[in-house]
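Reference record
================
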Amino acid sequence: MNDLHVRIADWHKDYEELRRIREAVFVAEQAVPPELEWDAEDSDAVHFLACEGDYPIGTARLLADGQIGRVSVLKDWRGLKVGEALLQAVIAEAEKRGLSQQMLSAQVQATPFYEKLGFTVVSDEYLEAGIPHVDMVRSSG
C-alpha cells in the first residue's frame, strides 16, 4: 500500500466506481437488498473514494447533517488502514464544513474500529438490513 490516497468523489463522474465497491461489499458480500443500499441521499451527499494509485478500493459518504455512511473497503484491502484513511478524510471534511458532531450507524462487529477514531456507542443494538448495528457519535474539539 504505497500509494493510498483519499479524495472527494463526484457522484456523477465516479458513480460506476462508487457503485462497484458498494455492490461488492454490501449487496454481494453482506446480502443487503439493492433497494436498501441506494437511496435519494446519494445525490446530495459528499462521497469519498480511497484509491491505491488510480484504482478505487473503498468509499464512504457524508450527509449535510454530519451523518457518515456507506463506509466500505473491498475485501482484499481490509486490514491495511484503508478504512482509517477514509474515515479521517470524512471527519476532516465534516469539520471543515462546520459539522462538529459526526454520527454513524455501525455494524456491531466494526464498533472497535470506530471507537479508535473517537466514536462512542449511543444506542442499543438494532437490526438494519438484517445486520446488527449501533448508533455512534463523535464530537470534535
